Protein 1
Amino acid sequence: MAEDDLTARRSASGVRGSSETVRIGGRRLTIEDVSAVACARAGVELNGDPTWRAHIERGAAFLRARLDAGATVYGVNTGYGDACVVGVPPELVEALPLQLTRYHGCGMGRLLEPAETRAVVAARLNSLAYGYSGVRMVLLERLADLINFDVLPRIPAEGSVGASGDLTPLSYVAAALVGEREVAFGGQVRAASEVWSELGRAPLQLAPKEGLALMNGTAVMTGLACLAFVRAAQLTRLAARLTALSTIALDGRAAHFDATIFEVKPHAGQAQAAGWIRDDLAGREDTAGQRLQDRYSIRCAPHVIGVAQDALSWVRRDVENELNSANDNPLIDVDGERILHGGNFYGGHIAFAMDALKTAVANLADLMDRQFALIVDDKFNNGLPRNLSGASSARAPICHGFKAVQISSSAWTAEALKLTMPASVFSRSTEAHNQDKVSMGTIAARDCLRVLELTEQVAAAHTLAAVQAARLRLSITPRTSLTAPLATFVERVGAISPFVGEDRPLERELRALTQSIADGQLVAACAPRAYDETVR
């Protein structure tokens, strides 16, 4: 297939809808780079620098030379794991990598979503491009092809203990490259071999160590962690906005967010959250008739949101360090002419980061659920209708507004809180006690994504209720007004879910709003400041 035809096919895949590309090799990737690739806003290109490319090829050549000289290299001319004591005769060395990909084809559970799969491939590509894995340029080119032509390995989510890396799920990436198993391509499930033929590419013949290099790393947990970070950062901003809206709905006090309060307890994330709320309440004046102190879920909201906001700073550090690392084994130090046997496949930093992040996010769910409970309850909402019903007086006795939505929100919150048990402490000794202390990083990342999903549902429910409550407050309390940012927010939410007068099913509106929260549209459209300003 001609290169022009390949370019056209790549454009038709939808991944390269613009000219944006993320360059791989010789530079440090950010979480946002991975997110852009994962969400199909960008393709990838390999660095054209001849020095970098030569370094990659030298690594593969050095490994080959050491084998020819009779050196013993783990996973290249030995068995894997506990079988490292088993020598592989020279005539079987070329066959060994393919064997590794095949016997690890035992994943279970849901398949990773397209965005998750792209994030995984991008993370693996960037690690191998670090230049310490002994792989050839052609392997990096094929990984780039997976992204640029949107050839997505069908990766089961379950089966990794997070050390020796994400072996089983990454075997599906390796299998796709060699033309085995199935991939998603052009909206269909296809045999990988057929897709490569259609693209004019031959399936990759793995060189010694290339199967191990593809699989013996932390790309699944790291790719998922990148996506989790972005969604968590969006939720901190949204939780602050909903706190401001709930303050208005409850006719609460803006003074709780005075800057001095947060200057004398100088947690940066807490001050940032208070600043967001203060901006949304700009110009609001407290009156003598208001409750002296609002309840904790309002008054202490910056202190809850701030924990998540501050956690994001070190989570970014650890996730991006893992993303920009050589995390397989053994490592090929071509400049030092050494082969280094170690444990960089261990995903402990990602495991701990995801365990901490899911706890911080679950606390956001709990905060929003508590605020929701206040604004629907006529014993605490300072004069709003019971359950925020917008029904006429004649129909009020049979209308229940947001009663059931609040119950559902409570269920989602409880499930999110239940999932905060840390995965990283559940290490299991496996593989004949060779892998006797493992990270559980991939389980932690999957748990974090599930907590995020549940919290986004809570946020969607709270958003609908807070907007309804603010509209009711505007009609009940004449002195109430909305700042421009809050008015824009209410208008945008109203386009998805109009005012609830007579009771109606809200599932479709909740799903639409949850998706808008998850993909960042609601925050991006309504927040004057980018969510990641203070988490770099």
Note: The chain is about 55% helix and 5% strand.
Protein 2
Amino acid sequence: MKYLRNQILLLSVLLLFSVTSLWAATNERSYKQIRESYIALLGSSQAQRQRHNWLKVIARLETFSASVQAGSRKDDAEFLLGRTWQGLSRASGRSDDARKAIRVYEALAKKFPGSNLADDALIFAAEIALETFSDQSAVYNYYLQVTTDLPPGDMLAEAQSRLKRLATVSPTLSAPARQAKQPAAKSGQLTKIRIWSSPEYTRIVLDLSSRVDFDPHQLKGEEPRIYVDLRETQLSRNIREKQQVKDGIVSQIRSSNLDHSRVRVVLDLTTEGEYQAFRLENPDRVVIDVRKPTDSSRKTAEAKSRSAAGQDSIAGILNEVPKSSPPLLHVPQHNESDGINLIVVDAGHGGKDPGAVGHNNTREKDVTLQMARKLAVALRKGLGCKVLLTRSDDRFLPLKSRTAYANKVGADLFISLHANASTNRKAYGLETYYLNLSKNNQAAEVAARENGTSLEEVSNLEAILFDLMANAKINESSRLAAEIQQAMVRHLKPRFSRIKDLGVRQGPFHVLLGATMPSVLVEAAFISNRREEKRLKTGIYQEKVAQAIVRGIKQYSATVERVARK
């Protein structure tokens, strides 16, 4: 009897082992099939443009992950799920897709800290936080988790290196990025005021014990100052009433309890300047950046001051404390009489985004960077204006960050350089685009390619453009596009054979969306055409395109009478 029981027990163990092995084999096979589908999707640029292709892979991964236990490729599946959401976010340009990728990566690191994929997941989360949301505080936290919360892995050295670089670029991040949660209190406390000065701006960091609401204000006039009211906050005893700065921008900082529930921090300025105030978390703090006024903004301020003299009511309005908080990002307003003082030149694509690739493996990102550098030199020489590049090397930049940069620096014009592509290898010519609804299928296809989206997504984007028409510089952009297109055709035809004028077109381009200045997208030639691909690689063609664009901008300036008078 005992022998029989032992035999039954042995058979049960063997059966359980066989079933477990069968499940494991089945899981392995299912995971590999899904992974093959993911790899096939990455291998087809056409398939990547269709959102449903990404969602199919995501659905399969979610079903697989929910049906298996830990250790049965579950961490691999969730990591691949994060990669798929991340890939979709790049194809769609949607921030919601990027947030989903981050959430998957965070969950993986939390559930499987011992997995060799946990550190990779946090590194990818940091990349998304930087590329899509420009959130350096979150980036710092992800790298810190790799170095402190996870077992040492193959990404440890990389995370440590990136932490050091971040601390160098932004000193406010060099403090511990995370602190133990403090007990909930009725009010927060201003615990420390830190100051970091540079020749161009002063950064004031208000360290807080917890998250608090704040109201920034600016007072102009003979004694300019910025003050920030921290609500439901108390002043720590170690905060001095006055702190001398005297760095040429901020003269001193004054702090006091405004009443029983508010703290006021006042920055006395040496001269009126532009500022932005924003909140950072983990730890909680409010950052105030005060910049020196540029020459153009100083002249504008002086002109306003002169016009206000003798008009007490207007002067009072200019110096009045605003009732509501200013926007966190100061966007300079363009004065029609200021002239063209600053142009931002954007080299299309870059980094992990090569753009279109020619028959001889010429990459659009390389050609556009070379043209951008030559255009910057030509503009400085031909117009005597300041020129900034969105990228000066081979790096990836999200499309929306390019016009955001132009807005932030107060550019007067935004020129985005590209090389065209078509499935028809015989297609060739020059064309210039400005932001508007696409009027034909060809324009929509170009927009879809440059946006990295599908034609369906272009239609969705056009729907929201109706709400932006009132703010867009569409008329000025169309004039600028026309002058540049005409100048390129006139300037290049005598020097190169078979220059084809494809005209001025309009379309919903992500890279132009949100620009507060006249902006255009130049397609300098077809990289998919062998003759034009060879042309695009030559320095002489790049220089001639640059010279033509300068001529077009000069003509545009004369037309709208905005040439800067020195």
Note: Residues 2-42 form the longest helix (41 residues).
Protein 3
Amino acid sequence: MPQIVECVPNFSEGRDRRVIDAITAEITKIPGAVLLDVDPGEATNRTVVTFVGVPEAVLEAAFRAIAKAAEVIDMSKHRGEHPRMGATDVCPFIPVANITMDECVALAKRLGERVGSELAIPVYLYEYAASCLERKNLADVRKGEYESLPTRVGDPFWKPDFGPDGFNSRSGATAIGARDFLIAYNVNLNTRDKKNAATIAQRIREQGWPQRDENGKIIRDAEGSPIMTPGAFKAVKAVGWYIEEYRQAQVSINLVNYKVSPPHIVFDECCRLADELGFRVTGSELVGLIPLDAMLQAGCYYLKKQGKITGVGEDELVRMAILSLGLDQLSPFDAQQKIIEYRIRRPGRLVSLPVRQFVEATASDSPAPGGGSVAALCGALAAALVSMVANLTHGRKAYLQHNDMMEAIANRAQDLKARLVELIDRDTEAFDCVMAAMALPKKTDEQKAERDYRIQITTQKAASVPFETLSLMPEIAQLARTAAEIGNTNLTSDAGVAGLAVALAAHGAAYNVFINIQNLNDREYIEKTKTETKTLLAKVDAITAEVKAIVEERLFQVRGMKRDVIFV
């Protein structure tokens, strides 16, 4: 799965749709950036925009949106209820998949430097990107709002991290940072009494609830602030309210960092507290989007509670999460629309095709999908078979001593399967890039040089994809060997097919590596890749030979067959 980052810029315009559309149009122009939501507020005169994509695309889309906002919004005329200090008031980067917070901080700094230098807008870094502790909190950075900016000029404390140390009357200033992903999540109760919901909210939120004396009065400190008893969870904000539309009370929750306090753990605590107070949780509701990782965690959590193996497919984990959290109680829960990674999947992916259509696409007169995609598919099927054997061994009375091993095998096989499924499409994409490079013009010497350069770069990339497929095969072969040796004997043939599929995937991937590198000019890279490819193939061949021997031996032992009956 590629790196995915989310960006949620807030623009100081929520009433003029033409202005809003002009800004968001800049985002949709960038390939690799997907606009997910545009939420304007008339009273706040502010629009919250959400888009996601690969880091470089998101960075470029953010810059263009900020540039357009500086062009179409005049902060000297802005009025609204929400605190603000700039045309683009705030622009955070949020890690979603396969990207670290440090990488998002780097994106924030790159964007800040560009906005400051190219657009002459003062930029303050905040949250994880903050240059000092005093600027970590957005409220502190924005203190005094737009109207305070002229008085900041010349004050060393308020010197911007990027851009001019002066007052930009039209665009104001912009806060750019990196923060954790926020999940807006509501838990539904079988009561209309919002006091019950508020009680649970107090118990679960980090802030907690005020302490009271024997007379019920709030206990305060020397400065008059309530003394609080902390709630159960860090990085959780919550209130209780009643929703007339649903005729139910809800615990409305902001999970500020789901990796610290995941939805399923908070949900179960709400269930426990509701039961303690004499009522019940009937389900929950997701407002906005959720990362796939959070759903997979929930699915694994509830399978473990049932004593079931967790090495199952992604679809099953998502289904288990939806069912266990009651996410479809109030309305149907469409995973394709609510899970971020699913929303940004591009159309036309090979892995989304039915089997028959995939086969027909391979059999057509187009060179892609071709051998590289088929090799990755064979590897994915091998991993899938290994996971199946482990799943159908786990928990069986005769194999209980291998439960831990089978669960580990199933989970690892699922991880490898997911990587190979992505490689099915990546192989075809890499081939398309080579074709695009070959189609570049070559009339002038400069054009020829650029075309040759692009062909070399894309061809090396095309070789790297099947090489990655091959590099996964020794581990899958080893998993198949273990599954064949100690797995459920009724599935011995399945483990054997997994071993054969590994061998096919490995040799098929190697063919595609070799056919690509022969067109490269880098002799050192070619020789290095050849050596590594042969080494990997030797490992796969050695292990799959062992798988074959184990499978045939077990078949004869268990079934009482004579070897020469089926193997000549």
Note: DSSP finds 18 helices and 13 strands in the chain.
